[in-house]
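Materials and Methods. Structural model of DNA 3'-5' helicase. The 833-residue sequence of DNA 3'-5' helicase from Coleophoma crateriformis was retrieved and submitted for structure prediction as follows.
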Amino acid sequence: MPPKRKAPSSGYGSVKASKDSAASTPGPATPQSIDSDDDFSGEEASEHEAENIENAVNKFSIEKYQARRAGISGRDSASHHFGNNDFSYLALKPDHDNRPLWIDPQKGRIILESFSPLAGHAQDFLTTVAEPLSRPTFLHEYSLTPHSLYAAVSVGLDPKDIINVLDRLSKIPIPDNIREFITKCTQSYGKVKLVLKNTKHFVESSDPEMLQRLLKDEVIGPLRIQGTEGITTESAPKMGGLVIPGTKNAAGVQQATDQRAGDRPQDGENAHQEDILRTLTEEDDDDDDADAVHAFEIADTGVESVQKRCLELGLPVLEEYDFRNDTANANLEIDLKPAAQIRSYQEKSLSKMFGNGRAKSGIIVLPCGAGKTLVGITAACTIKKGVIVLCTSSMSVVQWRQEFLKWSNIDPADIAVFTSDHKEKFTRNTGIIVSTYSMVTQTRSRSYDAGKMMEFLQNREWGLMILDEVHVVPANIFRKVTSSIKTHSKLGLTATLLREDDKIRDLNFLIGPKLYEANWMELAEQGHIAKVQCAEVWCPMTTEFYSEYLRESSRKRALLYIMNPRKFQACQFLIDYHEKRGDKIIVFSDNVYALHAYAQKLNKAFIFGGTAQQERLRILENFQHNENINTLFLSKIGDTSLDLPEATCLIQISSHYGSRRQEAQRLGRILRAKRRNDEGFNAFFYSLVSKDTQEMYYSSKRQAFLVDQGYAFKVITHLQGIENLPGLAFSTPAERRELLQNVMIQNEDWDEKISDDLFHRNDKGGGGFGPAKKKPAARRTAGSLSELAGGQDMAYIEQNKSKNKELKKKKGESNPFFKKLARDQQKRKQALE
Ligand SMILES: Nc1ncnc2c1ncn2[C@@H]1O[C@H](COP(=O)(O)OP(=O)(O)OP(=O)(O)O)[C@@H](O)[C@H]1O
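The predicted structure was written out as tokens:
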């Protein structure tokens, strides 16, 4: 029996609230549920913060609603089936049909009817105030959490606005406890800002009483600069005059609202909806108080103490950078090239960052391939001060620099890279540095040059720090980065604000709140990312493999379900089918033994941690441009940073347990497919799973995130015509026994331990077969494995000559196109040097 599928995840903010939530709470921690690279340590501040949130959420769980519900339970013979989800006691508004939202008063969940004519407006609003949990075709689920409300406050909404709009869109009157929850969360969050104006730090708030309270505080009070004039008052900053480059106008949110005018219900279609819409778009100008801000100045050295103390007081500080009034830091000459037009969702995300004309620190979440790089570059072009970009790998560093040169008019001399191979500085008084997290945080055994470079980074003030792929970097690394490099604003970029250990919320206070999260399906509909058909292919285990599977320990079990001959056949069949359709296919395997075995047997090229850099590039070039090389086997080093827009089909044969993040990252490899706008084009993502094994459990867990984004995984139990595939591997019992013998003698852990990506190796040696860090002395081949098993005469060894070697041989015969490619690469390298 396959394991039961889990219901869409619930937000961490809602978990503890009620008894039935236990069902949606993740089970006990198992080794598989934690990504190995998600190491955290020293999280005192965030633990404290987490406690606050839990308390708030517990308060949010309301006995009175429980009691009211108790009153109605047993009312009819069906209500008990709905348990805690029986909301029939809630009174509907008379015109509820015209309103798109349902609100669950117990957990703060909001359900949006995405087919409503008002859905567009409602979605814009909900992504600002709530956490999107699940967005399939017809009903979207959001959750109000302390963090989502914190983010809403940070983009300038106040509790009154939030409650008003929610009320207009809701089918039921807003429950009192929801009002209370919104007010409670927002009254402390976002009230205090730390603003750097003209090199002076100010603690700012629109509430003068809040500042009085802080001045009386024993830690913060003494940090006020003596001799400055107490609390000053001035009008609140406005967007006015600020133009985000690459946009037609920079009215930000307002423009996004205008674009929605197309959603407006047609004349006579529904007068009620027209009314609701009108009230939604009406300007709220009755609040004059919000137009003034009050501030006091603190010493530069007191910044960290103020932040820490405010967090302790439950008043996390929002960071804002008034870059237009920063006369102390030199202006950077940078603008987007005239041809660069940012897309509406990119503009919308930036309008949240620059909503009031200042730069807010925070995180922007866009799907893989949706253009996060251009968002970062546009932010840099808006702020026009020194920028530091931090990436996860040295290849990303090169790509970021190239993208800056492609999209902006930055002088190449003003953008430098800092990696182990290149330690450059810009020559003028300001510029851009692109580096990796490891370069700026590693403290031991720094070379002299690297030490000098770090001094250079630490001795200046940066206008903007762009933090790429924020979800993969441990919190302690962020702490090191932000404490050692002075920057006025931080922009985190990611595709999946998701960690298996749920520590993602730490980022809220280390970088800033989530400013924007795009809807994957919407972007696919608009053609910005590819549409993907997802399928899980169930492969029955052969009897001999299954008998061993039941007997074995967990590590060997994994190898057995990965090497299941039926899975191999399914992979062979799918490759054949998609190659014939003209697809370019990537096959992913975390397990390097399987990677090697599959690729060798099917005579396909492969890349893993031990593949030499030259060989990797050669294989990738062939995959991109050689019409005879249409399939590439990749280990997990290809999960990220791989830009292969030719790829249109993914097949996953082995993966990292239940990692939702890896599943999303892998899907991301085909979202940028070049052919995505061809009529009727679909990319394909297959996950091959051995039936009745643990792999099925992991597989459903892995899919949870993508299912929440609206992807539907079809289950394929039989691949039509597989039996008739000429040359189908392992079709005789003898072949399968041979394979089983090979698998059974494997005693090593074949999971690749990598600490860098596809383009950057740890070992300096050439392509050993095994974990990347191992010495490449012994190159194990399929031949020697087969010999060990006493099966020298089997098909397995006959195909010992790998496709990789074949490609290597062809190196000298490179056609003019490859020669040109090599020349271009050489030029790029020289440009970097
Ligand atoms: N506004 C735009 N106009 C034209 N092309 C764009 C625009 N935005 C992004 N692109 C293109 O889309 C592709 C994907 O962009 P990018 O590499 O920044 O995606 P990403 O979100 O960083 O993906 P990943 O998460 O996989 O790294 C690039 O080729 C980029 O040039």
